[in-house]
Design brief:
With about 80 residues, the chain is mainly α. Helices cover about 75% and strands about 0% of the residues. The radius of gyration is 22 Å and the shape is elongated. It starts with a helix and ends in a 9-residue tail after the last helix.
Length: about 80
């Protein structure tokens, strides 16, 4: 099945749906595209991550979890 025929079939199906369901299809398609883009971004970073020692990565994760979720109300 060609890409063009798939797009046509999707379009025909969407035309039969009520507007609220069409919105759900649009949201789903955007979520799929977003997930694909995030995966591509991770692949671009992979070569940089290979240089880290596992101990160092665990230490960074721990510091981020402990320190980055705190709010210092007197800082402002």
């Amino acid at each position: 099945m060609s890409t063009t025929s798939v797009k046509l079939e999707i379009s025909e199906e969407i035309d039969t749906l009520p507007p609220e369901d069409q919105r759900k299809v649009l949201d789903f398609a955007r979520a799929l595209a977003d997930r694909r883009l995030r995966a591509q971004g991770k692949e671009k970073l992979r070569p940089f991550a290979q240089g880290f020692d596992l101990k160092d990565l665990e230490a960074m994760r721990k510091v981020i979890e402990e320190d980055c979720e705190r709010v210092d109300l007197s800082e402002w």
